Amino acid sequence: MAIVAFQLDPAAGAQSGDDIITAINGAAGTISRASSVSAAARPLAAGEVSNTELAGGAAKANLDALSDTARGYVKTAPTTGEFPVVSIQRDATGKLDVDYDNVAV
Fold first, then answer.
1. pLDDT in tens, 4-60
2. Alpha-carbon distance 73 to 86, whole Å?
3. Collapsing DSSP states into helix, strand and coil, what is residue 72?
4. What range does the domain containing 20 cover?
5. Are 64 and 74 in contact (CB under 8 A)?
């Protein structure tokens, strides 16, 4: 598994499919979750909370109960052949920034 990212610029002019693929394939860099997110802001790591402290599914259920904008994450439900989205946000330059797992479900 690897995390892959791309950006969409809503202000960009029309591009051909080949232009878009060339830009995505030419993007450089990788994301290291450990170095890109502070410990206080990242998801819990294995062993940080035991099942005696948090019932299975309780955290997800609590987060799912929040409103869409308060929740702070995008819920996805990929099916066979689709790629799970890890995060999505609008970056400082106004582009839509999407990170996804490069292994299909």
1. 777 777 777 777 778 777 776 666 655 444 555 566 666 666 666 555 556 667 777
2. 9
3. coil
4. 3-101
5. no
d(CA 89, CA 52): 34
Using DSSP, state whether 89 is helix, strand or coil.
Answer: strand
Beta bridge mates, 100: 4, 85
The H or E element containing residue 88 is: strand 85-90
Dmax of the chain from CA atoms?
53
- pTM of the full structure: 0.40
* Number of residues in the chain: 105
Secondary structure (3-state) at 57: coil
Tokens of 103: 């292994």
What is the number of structural domains in the chain? Answer: 1
